Structure formats: C-alpha cells, structure tokens
Amino acid sequence: MLPLGALLVVGFTTDAGAFTLDNFAEMLGTPTYLMLLGRTLLIAFAVTVIAIALGWPAAWALARYTRPTTKPLILGFVIIPYITSQLLLIYGFVTLIQAGGPIMSLLSAIGLTSPQSSIMYTPLAAILVMVQESLPTAILVMYSASEQIDRSVLEASRTLGAGKGFVFTRVIWPLSSAMIGVNFAITFVQTVGAFAEPAILGGPSGQMLGNVISSQLSTGVHQQFSVAISLVLLVASLAIVGIVTGLLGWSRRAISGVAR
C-alpha cells in the first residue's frame, strides 16, 4: 500500500507540493490521452479474452486427457516464459512475424500475403505477442479450475442424458466462472500496463498509455502528470475488472437458480 499511497500524494500535488486537480483535468481534458486510454483498455480486453479462449481448452485437455506422468513435463514447458526474459520473448516473436520469417513465409506460400509483407509495427503484432505472454497464466489458472471439477459430476450429467452444450453451460461454466474472473483480473491488469510490446511491435497506431507514462517518467519533467495518468488507468482497469467479475458472478447465480 505504501507505493500506491505515494502515487496518490504525487498525483494530487504540484511541483511545489501544493494540492491540485490540474494533473487529472489535463489528462481527462485532452482527446489524445482519452483516445490512448480507450485503445489501451480495448487491447487489454481483447488480449485477455483471446488468451483465456485459447488457454482454457488446452488446460482442460491437460487436466482431463493427459497421463499423470506427462503432466509435469507439459506444465514445465508452460512455465518456461516465466523464467525467460520478456525482451527475449518479444524479439523471438519478431523473428517469427518479420518479412521472410516462418509465419509470414507460410502465409505467403498459401497465398494469403505477398512474399515481403509483414505485420510488424501494427497493433495486431502487439496483440499477438501479448497473447503469447498471457497464455501461460491462462493455462495455469484454468488448469487449476479444470482439476477442481469432480469427474463424477460430469459423468452423472452425461448418464442422465445431458448433451455437451448443456454440460458446459450448466455444470462446467458455473464451476469455472470464479477462476475465469481470477484469470481475467490477472491477465487484464498485467496487459493494460504494457509498454515494451507496443514500443517494439505496435508502430504508431499501436501505442498504449503505458508508452506515454514511460516516456513522461524517463524525461523527468512534470512527473506528477504521468502519475495522474497512471492513477486514471488504474481506476479504469479496476472498474472493468469489477464489471466483468460481477457479470461472471451474476451468470453463475442465474444458472444455479435455473438449475434449482
């Protein structure tokens, strides 16, 4: 709480140490910053949803259809990004999507792109690399959720004639929604503050608010304003996380009420 308290003090003060709201008024009154805020929240939301959508089936397969002797090995591969430098991961991804790289060469071979095309320096490139970085978290959290679902509950549902869609919406979703909320919060919060990925891969149209905060702090000029931007981003992020987790809780309660 001490660093957050320090940010609150700095964000509401002037260079002379007097109380002010001008830092927030400048940020909220500038269309460019509001546009960057909206883009940042939208990109973080998209990355989070894509990562969970890709990670959940992988986690389910790992929990349900993988031999116990093989699970530790696969989980070991999943956590490798956690012990690898973030910059190495980013530049490793660059080699895949740059012109002439494996991915772009494959797309060119099947006629989807031209031989020298690339998605480098586009918002799509930044989104893809952040999805790659978020997948381990999504897989590990949803693996825990999948492991906690009693197999006998699923077997009983199928024995009573429930189809796959019914089992997912009435059994798997309510039992997993709490962990989906945890997964969303972790992934969204760590993505919304990203600045290295947009700086390297995003190009002019893929910059996020974290890039503005980083550049403002690096200059050492008017740091109170950069702190105010950070606090606005923090509040907006917490609001979205609260809304999503609230909707997930509501869906769980609604489905449970229907089931009764």
UniProtKB/TrEMBL annotation:
Transmembrane portions of the chain: 42-62, 74-99, 119-145, 166-189, 225-250
Organism the protein comes from: Pseudolysinimonas kribbensis
UniProt keyword terms in alphabetical order: Cell membrane, Membrane, Transmembrane, Transmembrane helix, Transport
The UniProt record lists the keyword Ribonucleoprotein: no
Keyword ATP-binding tagged: no
Membrane topology: Multi-pass membrane protein
InterPro entries from the UniProt entry: MetI-like, MetI-like_sf
Protein known as: ABC transporter permease
CDD domains hit by this protein: TM_PBP2
ABC transmembrane type-1 domain sequence ranges: 37-244
Recorded family membership: Belongs to the binding-protein-dependent transport system permease family. CysTW subfamily.
Compartment list: Cell membrane
